[in-house]
C-alpha cells in the first residue's frame, strides 16, 4: 500500500532564479495525482526534489516520520528505495538490452539471485506488455516501447511511490490511451502513490484522482480532479481546457497590457465544458482510491455542466456507477476491497441515455 507524501512550504531556487516557492500539498497514499504547468515552471525539478536528487532551500517533504531534505545520506539512500522513477528523458542505457536495463536496479540495490531477478523482470515486462522484447536494444524499439520499458524499470523494486515525468510525450493518441489505461491498471494492482507529470490535457482530465497546477513560481491549486475541473480560477480554467483566453500567454505569462486589453474586450474564460468520467480499470476492479463519479461535486453542492460524466458510448456514469460497483465486487480475481457505494444525498438531475451495464473485458 502506497505511502502519503506531505510537502510543506517547499521552495527551490537555482542561484537567484526562484523556480517555485512555498509549495504545499499532500499526495494521498495510493492515489494517482497529476502535476501540470507550462513548460519551464519546474515540474521536473519538483519530481527530482521529491526523490531527494535536488535539495530545496526551504520546506519539508514528509514521508511517514522522515523529512527527506534533512535526512542523513544513509537514511536518504534507504528512503529512495521507496520510489520508482521514470525520468523525462527515459534514461535507458543504450548498450544494454531491455532485460538488462530493467534488471539494473535489482542488480544494483539487491542481493537477489539471477533466477529471482529473471522472475521479477519478466513479471514487470508482462505488466507493461513487453514480453518477447527482452533482447532488443533501446535503439531498436519505438518511443512507446521505450516509455514502457522505463516504466517496467521503475517498478522492479516494488515502489511505494511511483513518479513519472511525461510518460506520454511524443506518443500518438492511441498509444497515450493505452499508456493511461496501463497507469490506472497498475495503480489498482500495486496500490502505490502515483505522481505523473503530463502536458496531455485529456490525460489530466480523465486519469488522476487529484490534479495540481504550477504557474508563476507557485502551486496555483492542488486537489481532487472534480475540484479542478469545475474550478473558476482563471489559470486553472484556461489550462485544463487548453484555451488561449486567460492569464497564460505564449511566453508563459501575458503582460499586463495584454490582460487589460482582454478585459476591455470582455473576453471571459468561457463556459465550463462537461466533466468527463474518470478512466476505470480494464478488468472492472475498483481501485482502492476510486471515488464515485460526482462525489466531490455533490459534497460541495456544485452542479456539473450538462453532459458531464457521460462517456463516449453515451453511458451516464452517475447512474451506471452502482451497477458497476456491484459487478466489480463480484469480478473473478478482483481483490476483496472495501465495498463502495455511492454516497447518500440528492443525485444530479441529469438526463440519462440509459444503456446496458458496462462491458467487461
Ligand atoms: N540543475 C539545474 N540547474 C539550474 N537550473 C535548472 C536545473 N534544472 C532545471 N533548471 C531550471 O529550472 C527551471 C524549471 O525546469 P524544469 O525542467 O523543472 O521545467 P518543467 O516544468 O519540467 O518543463 P517541461 O514541461 O518543459 O519539461 C528551468 O528554468 C530550468 O532551466
Ligand atoms: Mg520537465
Summarize the structure.
The chain has twelve helices and twelve strands.
Structure description:
There is one protein chain. The protein is of the alpha/beta class. The protein has two domains: 211 residues, Rossmann fold (3-Layer(aba) Sandwich); 80 residues, no CATH class. The chain is 33% helix and 18% strand. The chain contains twelve helices and twelve strands. The strands form three sheets. It has a six-stranded mixed sheet, sandwiched between helices. A four-stranded antiparallel sheet has the order 2-1-4-5, covered by helices on one side. A hairpin with a 2-residue loop joins strand 11 and strand 12. Helix 3 runs parallel beside helix 5 and helix 4 packs across helix 5. Magnesium ion binds next to helix 1. Pfam families: ABC_tran.
Number of domains: 2
Q: Specify the CATH architecture of the largest domain.
A: 3-Layer(aba) Sandwich
Straight-line N-to-C gap: 26 Å
- Care to count the β-strands? 12
User: How would you classify the helix and strand content by structural class?
Assistant: alpha/beta
**Count of helix runs:** 12
CATH class of the largest domain: Alpha Beta
- Spans of 5+ residues with little confidence (pLDDT < 50)? 330-361
Shape: globular
**Chain-averaged pLDDT:** 85
% residues in beta strands:
15-25%
Amino acid at each position: 500500500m502506497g505511502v502519503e507524501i506531505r510537502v510543506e512550504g517547499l521552495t527551490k531556487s537555482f542561484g537567484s532564479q526562484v523556480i517555485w516557492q512555498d509549495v504545499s500539498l499532500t499526495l494521498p497514499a495510493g492515489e494517482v495525482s497529476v502535476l501540470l504547468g507550462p513548460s519551464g515552471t519546474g515540474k521536473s525539478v519538483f519530481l527530482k526534489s521529491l526523490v531527494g536528487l535536488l535539495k530545496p532551500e526551504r520546506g519539508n517533504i514528509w514521508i511517514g516520520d522522515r523529512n527527506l531534505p534533512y535526512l542523513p545520506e544513509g537514511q536518504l539512500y534507504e528512503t529512495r528505495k521507496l520510489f520508482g522513477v521514470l525520468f523525462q528523458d527515459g534514461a535507458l542505457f543504450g548498450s544494454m538490452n531491455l532485460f538488462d536495463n530493467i534488471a539494473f536496479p535489482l542488480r544494483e540495490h539487491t542481493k537477489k539471485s539471477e533466477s529471482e531477478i529473471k522472475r521479477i523482470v519478466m513479471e514487470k515486462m508482462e505488466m507493461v506488455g513487453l514480453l518477447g522484447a527482452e533482447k532488443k536494444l533501446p535503439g531498436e524499439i519505438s518511443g512507446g516501447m521505450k516509455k514502457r520499458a522505463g516504466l517496467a524499470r521503475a517498478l522492479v523494486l516494488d515502489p511505494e511511490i511511483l513518479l513519472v515525468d511525461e510518460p506520454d510525450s511524443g506518443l500518438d493518441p492511441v498509444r497515450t490511451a493505452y499508456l493511461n489505461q496501463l497507469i490506472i491498471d497498475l495503480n489498482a494492482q500495486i496500490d502505490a502513490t502515483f505522481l505523473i507529470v503530463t502536458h496531455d490535457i485529456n490525460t489530466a482530465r480523465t486519469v488522476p484522482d487529484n490534479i495540481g497546477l504550477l504557474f508563476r513560481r507557485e502551486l496555483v491549486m492542488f486537489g481532487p480532479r472534480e475540484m479542478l475541473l469545475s474550478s473558476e480560477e482563471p489559470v486553472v480554467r484556461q489550462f485544463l481546457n487548453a484555451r488561449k483566453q486567460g492569464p497564460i500567454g505564449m511566453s508563459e505569462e501575458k503582460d499586463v497590457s495584454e490582460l487589460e486589453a482582454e478585459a476591455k474586450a470582455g473576453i471571459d474564460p468561457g463556459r465550463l465544458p462537461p466533466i468527463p468520467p474518470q478512466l476505470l480499470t480494464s478488468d472492472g476492479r475498483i481501485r482502492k482510491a476510486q471515488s464515485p463519479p460526482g462525489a466531490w461535486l455533490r459534497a460541495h453542492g456544485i452542479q456539473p455542466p450538462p453532459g458531464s460524466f457521460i462517456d463516449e458510448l453515451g453511458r451516464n456514469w452517475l447512474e451506471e456507477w452502482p451497477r458497476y460497483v456491484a459487478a466489480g465486487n463480484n469480478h473473478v480475481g478482483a481483490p476483496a476491497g472495501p465495498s463502495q457505494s455511492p454516497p447518500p444525498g440528492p443525485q444530479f438531475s441529469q438526463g440519462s441515455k440509459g444503456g446496458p451495464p458496462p462491458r467487461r473485458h
